[in-house]
């Protein structure tokens, strides 16, 4: 059964909200109204020192137009509060991403929380499993494959697993081997000490001379 809350969500602006907002604007000072009239973008970057070691903060800023900027904040940033600090960034462009310590120059043991928006980082266990067992199975992708595509993939895998073949040529240039290498067949065609293969119907070449002191 539909009621009032089906048509209105918690963010619906009411007349009471409009009056409250207008009263807030009337109570602003002149410099605050000038600041509110600016078209720049304001970003509040909250930094926390979890390790306890006071170090400079390096911010890599990536804008929506593809440009980049690097902001280096000295260690004096923490002089008022050694655990939490907020940095105001006023920019005329939209920021897509902010990375703390993009070049890994500071002593940071946990880099997973250095990205805004948050980036999913693979753990050491996930990297080990991927390296040892290969990528995990994508069941949804496999379900979308048709029967014909599955047969084609299976035939390609069988072709890839087939053994390689090589061909050997005897002394007169004719092929004597077509298939997997056979050690006995190759030994029969090795040249003798005189440097020529012994063919049927021809006398064997004399052995190479040996010298003894």
Topology:
Layout (H helix, E strand, L loop, with lengths): L3 H4 L7 H12 L3 H8 L3 E8 L8 E7 L4 E6 L10 E8 L3 E6 L14 E2 L7 H10 L5 H5 L3 H15 L4 E4 L5 E5 L3 H6 L25
Antiparallel strand pairs: 1-4, 2-3, 2-5, 5-6, 7-8
Q: What brief labels describe this structure?
A:
213 residues, alpha+beta, Immunoglobulin-like, two-stranded antiparallel sheet, 7 helices, 8 strands
General description of the model:
The chain is an alpha+beta fold and 213 residues long. Among the domains are: 38-121, Immunoglobulin-like, CATH 2.60.40; 137-169 and 176-188, no CATH class. The chain is built from 7 helices and 8 strands, in the order αααββββββαααββα. The strands form 3 sheets. A 4-stranded antiparallel β-sheet has the order 3-2-5-6, with no helix packed on it. The longest helix has 15 residues, at 147-161. It starts with a helix and ends in a 25-residue tail after the last helix.
């Amino acid at each position: 059964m539909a009621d009032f809350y089906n048509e209105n969500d918690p963010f619906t602006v009411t007349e009471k909200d409009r009056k409250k907002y207008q009263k807030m604007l009337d109570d602003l000072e002149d410099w605050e109204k000038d600041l509110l009239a600016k078209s720049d973008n304001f970003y509040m970057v909250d930094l926390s020192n979890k390790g306890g070691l006071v170090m400079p903060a390096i911010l890599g800023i990536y804008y929506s137009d593809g440009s980049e900027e690097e902001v280096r904040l000295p260690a004096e940033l923490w002089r008022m509060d050694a655990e939490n600090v907020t940095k105001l960034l006023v920019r005329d462009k939209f920021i897509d991403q902010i990375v703390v310590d993009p070049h890994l120059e500071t002593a940071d043991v946990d880099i997973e929380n250095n990205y805004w928006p948050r980036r999913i980082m693979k753990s050491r266990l996930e990297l080990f499993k991927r390296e040892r067992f290969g990528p995990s199975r994508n069941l949804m992708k496999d379900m979308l494959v048709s029967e014909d595509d599955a047969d084609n993939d299976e035939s390609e895998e069988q072709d890839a697993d087939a053994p390689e073949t090589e061909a050997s040529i005897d002394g007169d240039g004719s092929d004597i081997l077509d298939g997997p290498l056979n050690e006995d067949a190759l030994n029969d065609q090795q040249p003798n000490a005189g440097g020529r293969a012994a063919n049927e119907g021809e006398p064997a070449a004399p052995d190479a001379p040996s010298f003894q002191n």
